[in-house]
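Dear colleagues,

As part of the handover before I leave the project, I'm documenting each prediction I ran so the next person doesn't have to rerun anything. This entry is a single chain, and its sequence is reproduced below.
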Amino acid sequence: MLIGTSAQAQENSTNLTPNIHGTVRGKYEYQPEDKAGRFEVRNARLSVDGKVSEIVEYRAEIDLSNEGKIKMLDAYTRFKPFDDFQFTIGQMRVPFTIDAHRSPHKQYFANRSFIAKQVGNVRDVGATVGYKTDGALPIIMEAGIFNGSGVEKQKDFWTKNINFSVKAQFFLPKDFNLTLSIQKIKPDNAGIIMYDAGAFYHADGWHVEAEYLFKHYDGSAFKNVHSVNAFVNYDIPLKKCLFSKISPLLRYDYMNDHSDGMRYLGGKLDKNGSLVVTDYQRSRLTGGLTLSIDKPFVSDIRINYEKYFYRKGAIPKPSEKDKIVVELMTRF
């Protein structure tokens, strides 16, 4: 009887109220080469998360306008019997890299890096375990296995191949972070393994970050891919002003010829085809300013200019050219 009363008291002390959040990103882009511009709603995300008991959590997130399409993003439940251990099963962002794992409201630039958008961007269905340690060197470890189907082909997707991902974050002294991760995927007939190493310093208004990703295709199905993302951001507090801070920032990112891992023939998906270049080699310099308003919601005005440098013979995609971007992001 006493055990039942104690368990009931613990249950009653748990806050079961759901948390509702959203992120809306509207932007205008102008490409001088084309002398053309466009308005776009890049994201209109809504999420709900919370607890059903002291040790069971949940999260569901949908994007009502992911480049004009509705997409279910996160849908998982989490078992957390201890503060330093958790088990998660469902649909989620695969634990891999620094930049690809950032939510839209935590991005520094209006448009994602090549690592976050093309090379290392994976969301899948599976299960993960997480463990963290405290002390002089805090560490967060995450490891998971996944279908490899992505989030849109779950019902009739049966596989003898399991994808995996492992990510370790080391919180070093002097506000440094080192993140190492490895991921294996098989989007089609060729297995792909990716290695990623990144580090950042975040203190005294500075955020300095560098990340490198290496992507290898089994059986020489496609040549190895190298990708780099490096940037610096500095926050300048503002007083007696509409904005709480202004942040100048500068980024360099690079990727050589990249394949998404699917076979194509005549420009269409075809199992009789082969892996082809889906993103041509390029580098990019991005500079700009971010004006931040932090009350009552988190809201940023991001003003960026992107300068692309393509290899000879590369064919830029319609939206991958030099551009001016003005974005308003609101998180509630």
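DSSP finds two helices and 20 strands in the chain. The CA atoms of residues 49 and 59 lie 4 Å apart.

All the best with the project,
I.
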